[in-house]
Structures are given as C-alpha cells and as structure tokens.
Amino acid sequence: MAAAMMNLSSSIQSGLFSSLKPSSFFNFKTTHFKNRFFLPQSHFIFSKRSMLCTCSSNNSNFQTGAKAEPYVVTTPLYYVNAPPHMGSAYTTIAADAIARFQRLLGKRVIFVTGTDEHGEKIATAAAAQGSSPSEHCDVISQAYKMLWKDLNIAYDKFIRTTEPKHEAIVKEFYSRVLANDDIYRDDYEGLYCVNCEEYKDEKELLENNCCPTHLKPCVHRREDNYFFALSKYQKSLEETLAKNPDFVQPSYRLNEVQSWIKSGLRDFSISRASVDWGIPVPNDNKQTIYVWFDALLGYLSALLEENEQPSLQSAVSSGWPVSLHLIGKDILRFHAVYWPAMLMSAGLTLPKMVFGHGFLTKDGMKMGKSLGNTIEPNELVHKFGPDAVRYFFLREVEFGKDGDYSEERFINIVNAHLANTIGNLLNRTLGLLKKNCQSTLVVDSTIAAEEQDFKDTVEKLVEQAHIHYKNLSLSSACEAVLEIGNAGNLYMDKHQPWSLFKQGGAATEAAAKDLVIILEAMRIIAIALSPVTPSLCRRIYAQLGYSDDQFNNLNWSETKWGGLKGGQVMAQPKPVFTRIEQIKETENGGEAAKKVVKKKEKKPQVQGVVEA
C-alpha cells in the first residue's frame, strides 16, 4: 500500500494533468467539490423519489401510479414487558434492509413496526417498577423508537396497541368474527405459559411441564373465556399451504407449520377474565381481549392514516394485504396458523408471506440474563456504530437460521470487510486521483472500462446481489457486493496505477482510467450495499462528489455501469469507516483484558486506531 501513497514529482503531476485536462475532453465547467460540479442534464437521470428520513420515511411519492400496489413489510409488534433486546433489533434491521431494497426498486413501501402493550406480563412488569401500566408502556415504547433511530431504521408506521384507533379496529374485527359464529364462551382448564401467554398441550412440554421455548414450568389454570373456533379452519389452512407453499418461508418453517396443522388444531382462548390491562371484550366488559387477538390486529391499524376515522375498510384500502410478515421462529404458530384463520373468519385477504428467522446465540451459548451473556443492542450500537452492527448480523447470519455473535468475530469481520476491502480501496484510489488528477475524472467510466473484463465481473455480481435481495438471502447479497470490492482490490494490485503514473505518456493515461474504473465500482457498491449499511454508503457517495439529495433519490437501476462521467470532481480523500482496534492494557505489569477502542476516538492513545 505504501507504493500507492508515494509522492510523485510535481513535473509528473503537471505533465499528466496538462495532457489529460478534463476541459480538453468535455465542454463544461468544473468547480470545487463543495460547490458541486456542473454537467449537462443528460449526464444524470434522477429518480423522483422523496427524501428518506432516518427515523421514519414518508415515501408516498415512490409509487409510479395513483393505485400502485404497495410493498408492506412488518416486524412483530414488540412486547413492552422489558426494554428492547438484540433479537428485536435483528428482526428490525433485516426488515429495514428489505424495505430499503424495495424502495430502490421504486416500490411504494410501507414499513410497519411498533409495540404490543396489553397483557398480564406488562401489568406485572409495571407493578414491579412501581409505575402504572400506561406509564410503563410509554417508557418502553420510547426506548424502541430511540434504538431504531440509533440503528438508522427508516420505518413508515409505528403503531402502539394502546392507541384509540387500534382499539377501534380490534373491536370491529372481533364483531366480524363473532357475527361469523366463530366466537363462543366456554370453560377451559389446562397448563398455561405466562411468557407465551398461551395454554399448552402436555405432549409439547418438557420435563416438569416446562415450556420448550422459555424453559419455565407452566401453571395450572381454569378460566371462563371466549374462544375462537380455530379447528373450523383446519382444512382451509391445509389447502392454503398446499396451493401456496411460499406462504411460509423458509421451507423448513413451512414443514413445521404443516406438522402443527396435521396434528389437529384446537380452538384457542381469545379473552381473559383475570387481566384488567387490555381492551374490553365488546359484549362483555368483565373480560379483556387476549394478547394475540389484540396484537395481530396492529398490522391493520398501523395502515390507517393520521386523523382518519378508524375502520377495517379504511385500513385495508391503505395497503392490505401485507407483502411480508418478518418474525422470529418462536411466534411462527401465531402468525402462520392463528392469524390466517382469523383473517379468513373476518373475510380479509391473507398476507403474502410469513418469514420466520432463527435465534441469536452468543459465543455459542443461548443467551440469558441469568448467564450474564446477553447482547445489549444499545451498548453495541454506541460502541461500534449502526453500520457495523447492521452489517455483521445481516452478513454473518444466514437469514432464516440461527446465528452466533462473538465480539472477536464481530471486530474481525467488520474490519476486514468494511474498513479494509471497501474503505481502504476507496481511500487509496481517491488519494491517487488527488495527487495525479487534481481529484477530477479524466474520462467517462464507460469509456475507461472498454476492453476490460472488470466491468462484466461487476455487472454479474450486481445481478447476483439483486436476486439475493429479492429472495431475502441477505447474507448472500452482502457477499456478492463485497466481491465487487475484492475484485477492485485485485484489479488495483494487478494494474498498479501508482507505478504507471511514474512512467508518463500512455501508461499515465491508462493509470488515470484505472482510477475511474475503481471509483465507478465504488459508486455501484454505495448503491448495492445501501440497504444494509446506509450511513456508510452515504459517506462513500459523498466522497464521489454527490449530494445528500442525490443519494436519497437513488434507484437500483443506477447500479448499471456508466454513472461516473469525465470531468466530475471527487471529494478530498477522507476515511469512510474507522477500523476497530483491540488494545491490550497492562495492569501491575501483567496482561489484562483487551480494550476495544471506539470509533472516532480522539484521546492520546489514538495511535491504536487505524483508519481505512
């Protein structure tokens, strides 16, 4: 790398630039980067998408027609009995990446998230904190919003199930199902998991009647409740899954669901007589609606516009059905069995897909507060930044399967991929361009890549990334984009433009073209990886001389080779991603634990931070 950074004599620099002066190729004016450059309008095609907000995005302008079908993606509505954990963050990061990709395709995206705020566990958690359930919900719901902001989650709708509009939707839905003779009252006695808020069959429990998910004993309960006639929809659900196997993904989750249905469906309780913190049953104020018959309706109530009179018809016309329900595998039964049956009863269209992803472990072990090995998402994002967190979990966890986190692996992956492969490639290329071409491209990227196989390699990898994103293979999409960076580094090492610049003449012209080729690859990476690492890609795009508005209005079609034009002025080289270093500290002459140096550290030990 040192050769790439060597100083060239002023005579070589001036000789090169006089021979490759942009004005000799193009009849337009170039200015300093901060004032932007001016090109004929034909050099750029801007999509007419609205600006994307980091916390929530108003993308109503994305649709290409007044009645264009939206792409609706949802996370679960997270239960507010406790602050957000890494599992919740993982689901939401994945949903955000999928939503951002769909926006790049020009879709009108509605990304729904929110909080589930009723139930026994919440009332108990609030009492333990000495607060009312309402106060408790306010605090935890706000904690989710703050974490989503820190993780650069661009959601469109955030629904709280304590909102009046949600209660109205739940009551109307309940009344519809009741009118369809699918709700009845009965006594029920059985083993109840407080954490699942569900009665369990003894055959699915572990030793000592422990819940297989929460590993805690279920309690014996007898209640007089209202029930939903789930068993009535067994045949309909079987037929739905047989005709539409993509309804539940990945395929091995579909097998689980089919197995549950095949074993025989039992009607389930949809109310509680012993829980005050909930929505009252419309025809019986002594009972409240059970969590799942309440929370699942949040996917509908979230679609309502502000200040709109709440009704199922309004919600449906605003974007139903959902294109993708993204959930953890622990709540698959509720989304893939209970929910579609409920919708059938109410006469509503089913979602297009339910995708159940796996669990996260830490250092190969299941996480738990008792083990002291939980991953705190707030701590992680404040320590390493949102791009590092988003990239690691989407790149290193095969989407759908369980995945493991270790800090050492996290640091190694992030440094190797983001700081070295991508960050260092951009930085050294811009450094060479500044020294030898006054930070100005000498020719169009299309012309520079003539008779070069590199362009074909990049185009193939972009197409692979596109397919992987569409198939929700997020790890593979990241891998395909990273391969563009790897190919760029190999190209640089093979062509060694720093050596060519020293030779002058045709070699100098070839070197200048090499830099254009690499920077065009970086431009494409900035678009193709933006669903996963939006802040990093924004910085890359800025280094290439583009504005925030241009980044916000990107479209996937702009991954096509040929975006950079001769005469464009690049930014001054500046690291886009700071390498994370672990510095060994000593204590009383002995070695102590490694200390992770945070990004942007400006204290005296800054020599431990390597920038790329």
TrEMBL record:
Pfam families recorded: Anticodon_3, tRNA-synt_1g
Keyword set includes Aminoacyl-tRNA synthetase: yes
Record has Nucleotide-binding as a keyword: yes
Source taxon at top rank: Eukaryota
A GO molecular function held by the record: methionine-tRNA ligase activity
HAMAP family given in the database record: Met_tRNA_synth_type2
Protein name, UniProt field: methionine--tRNA ligase
